[in-house]
Amino acid sequence: MVLVAACTAAAALGAAGNASAATKWLCGPGVASDQCRPSLSTTRYHGFTEPAGTVTPARDRRRGVACFYVYPTVSDQRTRLATRRVDPEIRSIALYQAARFSQACRVYAPMYRQATVPALAAGTTTRRDYLTAYGDVEAAFEAFLRRIGPHRGFVLLGHSQGAFHLQRLIRRKIDGHPALRRRMVSAVLLGGGVTVRKGSHRGGTFRHVPVCRRATQRSCVLAFSTFNQTPPAMAIFGRGASPAAGFLDLPVGPDLETACTNPAALGSERVVPLSSVIPAQPFAPGTILAAGITLLGLQWPAATTTFVQSDGGFTGGCSRAGGAHVLLVSSAPGTPVAHASPTPEWGLHLVDANIAQGDLVKVVRRQIGAYVRRVGRAHER
Prior knowledge:
Elements: H1 6-19, E1 25-27, E2 42-46, E3 50-55, E4 65-70, H2 88-97, E5 106-110, H3 117-122, H4 127-148, E6 153-159, H5 161-174, H6 178-183, E7 184-190, E8 195-197, E9 220-222, E10 226-227, E11 256-258, E12 272-279, H7 288-295, E13 307-319, E14 326-331, H8 357-375
Parallel strand pairs: 2-13, 4-5, 4-6, 6-7, 7-9, 10-14
Antiparallel strand pairs: 1-5, 2-3, 8-11, 12-13, 13-14
Helix pairs in contact: 1-4, 4-5
């Protein structure tokens, strides 16, 4: 991988910001066919085998908080950087990862020129590429803040490359700015290698923003990477900083460890049942990520609703087995045992956002409720 000089990187970042002035929105008010705002109809199961009826969760009409979602590495475009074209895999990932949070907040999601799946697989992604992608995200965040107004709270949502960019965004724009930090209700940064000092809930990636240890805590981070076996020695996640740390100037060091916050048991390493949620429709057929999801070998229960939810199909707890710090999950009786995909080093990275999505949404709703009660409701624009 190519590293460029600091001055060149800074110039690239500046250019990216200028080019990104007119943000294109994948999700948000005014977006036609908003994939982050589908029907929330859900078929529920106890585990994977016992039907428990259907439900359509209500959306919170208070709208005191907005969400800003940055999607992971998903583009199949055969270039190092994707365009802002809304391809099928982009629409699918929003449904898979962000849509359920629309229960609690209006989700805004920008299109950005991300480093693509083919470039990642070929090892051709450069620092300049990541900085260009980040420039789009930062410009979109500034546009997001203008749209929601100067007082409204927000939640950040990201996975993998999206989480890398949000880590840099928090470090540059939020961590050292108390007023904006107070408006950040929480940040859900999955599969992105957020770090803390060993034995601590803070330090590492952020100076002032800690990991969340209780459901009503605000201005904190929810972060984990998922495995269902002890991570191998060369695991990509769970062993320190993210793979993109060097490109995005994120801290590394022997005194840091990967953060793990189990949303079903915050502040604890207890193994507990998880609430998993995934769309009933398959991920964009024919795409690279769809092939990776197929390799997991997870046949979810059948449903005619938009989503299917399994309560207790998996159990999980934060674990330091093998020297890694990950959300280590197990399949309950009747639940298929997933295969790591695309290789054992990735663990269950492709379902990080779904394996405990019901628990994540529940925590975020409680955090938003605590924020609204404390700060008061802001008017939606």
